[in-house]
Amino acid sequence: MPFILREEKERKDKSRLDSFVFHKAFYKGKCQSNHGGQPTPAIKTQAEENSGQVNPIRGPTEVGANGPSESQSSIPKKEGNYSSKNTISHLQDAWEVTDNTFSPLPQPGLLMPESFSSRLMSITLPSTLFYVHPSLLRELDLSHTTIKSLPESLPNLVALQKLILKCCDLFMELSPQVGELLNLEELDLSETEILGLPQEIRKLSKLKYLRVSFYGYLNCGKGLQQTALVHTGTISALSQLTELSIDANPDDERWNAVVEAVVEETCNLKTLGCLILYLPNIESLGKRRIGSTSLSYYPLRGFKFTVGQHKQRSISRVPKEVKAHFQEWDKCLKFVKGKDIPREMKSVLKSTTAFYLDCHATARSLSDFGIENMQQLEFCLLAECNEIQTIINGVESCKEPADMLEDDLDNSESLRSHSALEPALLNLQHLHIFYLKKLVSIWNPICKKQCLSSLKFLTLHMCPKLGAIFSPALMATLGKLEVLVVKNCPEVTCVVKGRCNEFINPLIPYLPSLKRISLLYLPKLVSISGGFQIAPKLEKIGFYNCPKLECLSTREMSSGDLVVIRGESKWWEALNWHKSDWWNKNRLDYLQSIFSPLSREKDVMTQMEEM
Fold first, then answer.
1. What are the angstrom distances between the C-alpha of 459 and each of 59, 327, 469, 482?
2. Which range is the signal sequence, renumbered to this chain (predicted)?
């Protein structure tokens, strides 16, 4: 059956085909329904986009910009929504869905292939798909589909600028014909199962964005496992790259074989601004070619480095939402299973904004990495570092850190001139601590007011030797702290512990910005504030499994902004309300009215987060 042709002028004015996109919405039924309830692809023409109207047959859609959007970038910013945007755009050919297949929906005057059908859950693209206007196709997005291979007619897409195959977990081999797409500027193979990049990639001289995941290693035969992941000279040939992301299976020895060459070639690029790499060895940060800089000194505006030999864990002790938050920063460094603290790590730390220290074997404090190297740090996550005893150790002392919490105030004269008292971690906003077996304090000397002055969020999970969270001196520096979460710390007896001295005024309310407190699984907790006036702007507070906390003080519950108290009903009913402390009966009645018992039907942490 011949194609229906329209006049040349109308074709130029109205039939320009800019992009074609398959989208996960097809499978989730988010588009309008036609033809027996089957979902119809949401498609918008160029004219409809300009007018803001949507063809009722084709359905609504979201249109992506030409060129990479913020959401498609592998280097997300700190604020905003980092999820991928739906990108359905500019397709003048529409398809109806019948019996789980695509077939042409004829419209007068449109160029149409004679037939096109593909099963939704097992897509194999026919070569006829690209027979229509191949020279005009700019963008092809097949993300979140079950596509296994690209059609042989791929070279016909001479004008293609963006090829997106993100999250296609059955896609294992990229055709060498991709090298014929000489106008390609963006190639996204992230979260696929491909076994390697073809050598022909180096022909893509206009390529600016390359994202690739090598995770097909365990799902292929031994013959395919011999395929090189990245051939020598491939990265250096892509001279226009501004963003490079390579994620590899930690068990794949082929990546270990090529990673140094990839790093050396990367450091030779002149236009690179964003880089994501898994580096099995810390030495890779220092590798360089003659005449070029090393990765630890390469001027990047954004990076995500995972450094260290590690195996993928099926169960992680760090919540996935915390890990996701770590990824939101523009310069992220994760150090896994390190045994020492090499100079390359300290060098990269100087420009890092988010640091994740995971399973380090010897570090006794964060200070071992050099506080002077962490002045740009805004986010810090420490997990399963079994030798860490204190987070910031500013004083070399023969005393154990456990003693410093009580004695730091008594030694103020000897500490006053110590260099450790210089302002430190001024930009740190988030501090998350998980499973530190030997942790006994956060900061062991007296702190100047500038130290930790920007900290807003502090969480501590499973620190079995920690006895108290703050000393009075440390508490005095935390003027911006908004959220405090303490969970599974069996030796904690109070949140604030210590004595007043000339630097501490017990009449001034401390932690003036604190809005939310969650205290969970603290069997020895007997006091929150330790007699200090705290949290004048507290809004929400929650307790769970704190059986020895038998009374609440006006010094910790005085906030006029308090709107929710959560806890177990039996615990709340058994509290002792000392009349000398709670002389204002109206205040006590108000606290009773805002108490909300925890439900046994829902997860405790979920209920705390919903406060």
1. 46, 18, 10, 11
2. none
Q: Which two tokens stand for residue 233?
A: 């000279």
Are residues 118 and 102 in contact, defined by beta-carbon separation less than 8 angstroms? yes
Residue 485 main-chain phi, psi, to 5 deg: -125, 120
Show the tokens assigned to 119. 């099963």
Choose the most confident range, by mean pLDDT, from 115-124, 482-491, 585-594.
482-491
Tell the residue number behind the tokens 């190297």, with chain if given: 373
Tokens found for residue 556: 């910790």
Least confident of 36-45, 244-253, 300-309, 565-574: 36-45
Q: Of 414, 410, 420, 413, which Cα lies nearest the Cα of 390?
A: 420
pLDDT at 23 over 90: no
The four Cα atoms 123, 129, 134, 137 give a dihedral, to 10 degrees, of -50
Cβ(178)–Cβ(200) below 8 Å: yes
pLDDT at residue 92, as a whole number: 29
* Neighbouring residues of 202: CB distance < 8 A, sequence distance ≥ 6: 179, 231, 233, 234, 237, 238
- Answer for the pair 278, 248: CB distance below 8 angstroms, yes or no: yes
Residues in CB range of 241: below 8 A, 6 or more apart: 207, 208, 209, 210, 235, 269, 271, 272
> Does residue 246 contact residue 278 with C-beta atoms inside 8 Å?
yes
The DSSP call for residue 286 is G
With contact defined as beta carbons under 8 Å apart, do 521 and 494 qualify?
no
Taking the C-alpha atoms of residue 455 and residue 434, their distance in angstroms, rounded to an integer, is: 17
Give the C-alpha separation, 553 to 41, whole Å: 61
Q: Whole-angstrom Cα distance, residue 359 to residue 60?
A: 48
DSSP one-letter code for 32? P
Q: CA 302, 304, 308: angle at the middle one, nearest 5?
A: 150
Q: Write down the residue that tokens 């042409």 correspond to.
A: 104
Which pLDDT does position 46 carry in this prediction?
Answer: 36
What is the value of pTM for the model shown? 0.76
Q: Is the pLDDT of residue 126 over 90?
A: no
Supply the pLDDT for residue 448: 53
Neighbours of 388 (CB within 10 A): 25
What kind and span of H or E run contains 141?
strand 139-141
Q: Residue 584 and residue 554: Cα distance in Å, rounded?
A: 10
Q: What is the DSSP string of 105-147?
A: ---TT----S----BTTS----GGGGGSSGGG--EEE-TTS--
User: 306 and 313 in contact (C-beta within 8 Å)?
Assistant: no
Structure tokens at 303: 């990076």
Question: Tokens 């006590």 belong to which residue?
Answer: 588
Q: Is residue 330 pLDDT above 90, yes or no?
A: yes
How far apart are the C-alpha atoms of 211 and 189, rounded to whole Å?
6
Q: Give the SS3 label for residue 382.
A: strand
**Alpha carbon of 373 to those of 344, 348, 426: distances in Å?**
11, 9, 12
C-alpha to C-alpha distance for 299 and 311, rounded to whole angstroms: 30
What φ, ψ does residue 286 adopt, rounded to 5°? -100, -5
Q: Is 316 helix (H, G, I), strand (E, B) or coil?
A: coil
